[in-house]
Design a protein that fits this description.
Layout: E1 4-10, H1 18-32, E2 37-43, H2 55-71, E3 80-83, H3 89-98, H4 103-107, H5 110-118, H6 125-139, E4 145-146, H7 153-170, E5 178-179, H8 211-219, H9 232-244, H10 247-258, H11 264-278, H12 280-290, H13 293-322
Parallel strand pairs: 1-2, 1-4, 2-3, 4-5
Helix pairs in contact: 2-12, 3-6, 3-13, 6-7, 8-11, 9-11
Length: 325
């Protein structure tokens, strides 16, 4: 029986917060430790160029992302962890895909519309075509599944469209991968619980936030509601409690919520302690890893060498089929 192949990636923009952890990284870690899966996980640094960035900050964020993966329990001996730009075949395949992808497919992408509004002064060509690069990131490893957050599902669908177009025109080459989401999770903003938690601003609970910082941010969490109704903020805090809280605290606050006796200040204090305890080992491990940049470089280099073997085979096959070789 052939192993299943799964790919996934995270942009190195700012630090990862608990929403990134529950929505993606926790699943990446589980997959990396599964001996029945061949996996490729990468830090998608090329994608981060589509929005405003500072070179020194980007370099720091890349190493920070690598340390975050490993501190969270990612197994580099059983999986391939690397930096996207270290495999030039990704960009090469993206250009080939650009030449068979209709412009209309890209213009309808929801994230392009959203990011165009967020970065109105920087609507560049990369912002429009980055879903094609993402398709290349995926298809170059010919996976069965793609581990993504729910906001990236549309881009996985595009990768299937591109795979189908290429196969129809040049012969069967790429599988049409499915999303690999064990349980889609969306963590909402603390200050505006009607929106998804963002990496930017002062409202994200970062995985490596110190206990005092976690408590400070949770104190500001919006909980206002109409009389007799559960507010989005309350539901968001209870959702976090169910993932990070002890059985005792979950039971206590669930009973209080059901009886209408929920005290928000008590919930926030308990949740702050629970989240702090949950990531305590992670924080120490990440500090240790960041003090060893040579080790991080070695892990990423080993992962890149293994990944490039697969990527090179795929790009060679593609070039032969389209007449470049």
């Amino acid at each position: 029986m052939n192993k299943q192949t799964v790919v996934g990636g995270i942009r190195p923009t700012n630090k990862l917060h608990i929403g990134n952890y529950l929505g993606a990284l926790k699943q990446f870690v589980a997959i990396s430790n599964d001996n029945q899966i061949t996996s490729y996980f990468f830090i998608v640094d090329l994608h981060s160029l589509t929005t405003p960035f500072e070179p020194k900050e980007l370099k720091t964020n890349i190493l920070d992302a690598a340390a975050t993966y490993l501190a969270a329990g990612f197994n580099p001996k059983n999986s391939n962890l690397f930096i996207q730009s270290h495999i030039p075949e990704h960009a090469e395949l993206a250009w080939i895909f650009n030449c068979i992808t209709p412009l209309g497919e890209l213009e309808r992408m929801t994230q392009f519309k959203e990011k165009s509004q967020q970065h109105a002064t920087n609507i560049n060509a990369g912002l429009l075509s980055y879903p094609v690069l993402m398709a290349a990131d995926i298809l170059i490893y010919k996976p069965n599944g793609v581990s993504v957050g729910e906001d990236q599902v549309q881009h996985v669908e595009l990768s299937r469209v591109i795979a189908r177009k290429f196969n129809n025109k040049f012969g069967n080459t790429f599988p049409e991968p499915q999303t690999y989401i064990r349980k889609p999770l969306r963590i909402m903003s603390l200050t505006d619980p009607t929106k998804k938690m963002s990496k930017t601003g002062d409202e994200a609970l970062n995985m490596d936030d110190e206990p005092k910082e976690i408590a400070r941010k949770l104190k500001k969490a919006v909980t206002a509601s109409e009389p007799g109704k559960k507010s989005p903020g309350e539901e968001n805090l209870m959702f976090l409690l169910n993932h990070f809280g002890s059985e005792e605290s979950v039971r206590h606050f669930t009973e209080a919520q059901n009886s209408g006796k929920l005290k928000y200040f008590e919930l926030k204090e308990t949740l702050a302690q629970n989240i702090s305890d949950y990531f305590a080992e992670f924080r120490e491990k990440k500090k240790e890893l960041l003090s060893k940049p040579d080790y991080l470089a070695q892990v990423l280099g080993d992962g890149a060498r293994k990944a490039r073997e697969t990527a090179h085979k795929t790009i060679t096959e593609v070039k032969q089929k389209i007449g470049l070789l």
